[in-house]
């Protein structure tokens, strides 16, 4: 099936203008070329590291959403890091998934009740062991600075859509708005209109990625509508795991032949998620075919291979090293122009 699928895309690839990446370009520029020219790179699956990429082989090596995790993801060759954005008491954007600090730091209470200076006194912890590290809560500006020229960064907005202009303003001030991907859930025309209005106030020069989930949307027609409204580089598709279904056999209603055709016409990537959700069954966002199946059950073909065969050319995962390794070994990755990358850290983040 994969050979047939790639053959169908050949004509579309010829029709597009070809991006020419070279070793003289920054790593981020080379990645951006593949992100922005989906039809030229249907034979390459980009890997996004969820919450910056804190895990390897089922073990948490770094605190989630930490600079150490980002540096590790850059070193192993991930193309995108996903981080979560909230706001401090004094109005600065900070990198934090939960509204409360208790799970991910050695502090207690709501992040919004702490100033940045107070948050800097908190230390991030290793989930599972509770080990306290020397990593601190990062501001958005600090996190962007670490990723500049090295990797794309997906900002998961934990505030409302009205916060997007402020986030992009920080990236624009650093001269790296083009490396930033922001995303919002879309499910009807009213939501499309409200997000479009917020983005209009933001200005251009960044990447917007819609999210569509199969609890609200059941066919490719809405995705085509969304594609025309936003001209995105990618659309994130969610296949919620049904309670009575162990493993999806089809990928659900959104990962259809028609969706793949719509993505080609629109020139956007299909983004799939294999990462875990706490206290939910494995593969909760991927019809049961998540990282647990790939790594703990040693069935990566049934996870990364399954979603790649259904048209996914971006996979967001808690296990970026495992995903990259399997995809590369099985012909789903095209090497980049030769360019030195930092060595993968030998140890985890410093622990007190």
TrEMBL record:
Gene3D superfamilies: Phosphatidylinositol (PI) phosphodiesterase
Pfam family, one: GDPD
Keywords associated with the record: Signal
Highest taxon of the lineage: Bacteria
Gene Ontology CC, one term: plasma membrane
GO BP annotation list: ethanolamine metabolic process; N-acylethanolamine metabolic process; phospholipid metabolic process
A GO molecular-function annotation: glycerophosphodiester phosphodiesterase activity
GP-PDE domain: residues covered: 45-155
Signal peptide: 1-23
UniProt-listed InterPro entries: GP_PDE_dom, PLC-like_Pdiesterase_TIM-brl
Protein name: Glycerophosphoryl diester phosphodiesterase
């Amino acid at each position: 099936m994969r050979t047939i699928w790639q053959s169908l895309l050949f004509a579309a690839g010829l029709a597009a203008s070809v991006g020419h990446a070279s070793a003289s370009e920054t790593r981020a520029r080379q990645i951006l070329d593949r992100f922005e020219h989906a039809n030229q790179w249907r034979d390459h699956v980009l890997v996004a590291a969820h919450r910056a990429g804190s895990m390897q082989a089922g073990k948490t090596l770094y605190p989630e959403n930490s600079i150490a995790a980002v540096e590790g993801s850059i070193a192993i060759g991930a193309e995108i890091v996903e981080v979560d954005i909230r706001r401090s008491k004094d109005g600065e954007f900070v990198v934090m998934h939960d509204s409360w600090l208790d799970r991910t730091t050695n502090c207690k209470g709501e992040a919004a009740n702490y100033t940045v200076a107070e948050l800097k006194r908190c230390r991030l912890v290793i989930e599972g062991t509770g080990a306290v590290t020397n990593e601190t809560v990062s501001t958005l500006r600090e996190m962007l600075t670490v990723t500049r020229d090295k990797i794309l960064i997906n900002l998961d907005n934990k505030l409302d859509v009205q916060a997007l202009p402020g986030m992009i303003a920080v990236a624009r001030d650093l001269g790296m708005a083009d490396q930033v991907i922001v995303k919002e859930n879309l499910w009807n025309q009213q939501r499309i209109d409200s997000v479009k209005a917020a983005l209009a106030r933001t200005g251009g020069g960044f990447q917007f990625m819609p999210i569509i989930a199969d609890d609200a949307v059941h066919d490719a027609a809405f995705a085509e509508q969304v594609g025309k409204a936003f001209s995105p580089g990618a659309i994130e598709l969610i296949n919620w795991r049904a309670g009575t279904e162990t493993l999806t056999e089809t990928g659900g209603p959104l990962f259809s032949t028609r969706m793949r055709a719509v993505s080609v016409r629109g020139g956007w990537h299909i983004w799939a998620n294999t990462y875990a959700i706490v206290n939910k069954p494995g593969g909760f966002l991927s019809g049961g075919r998540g990282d647990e199946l790939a790594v703990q059950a040693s069935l990566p073909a049934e996870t990364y291979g399954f979603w790649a065969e259904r048209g996914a050319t971006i996979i967001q995962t808690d296990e970026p090293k495992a995903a990259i390794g399997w995809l590369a070994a099985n012909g789903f990755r095209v090497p980049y122009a030769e360019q030195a990358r930092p060595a993968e850290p030998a140890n985890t983040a410093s622990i007190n």
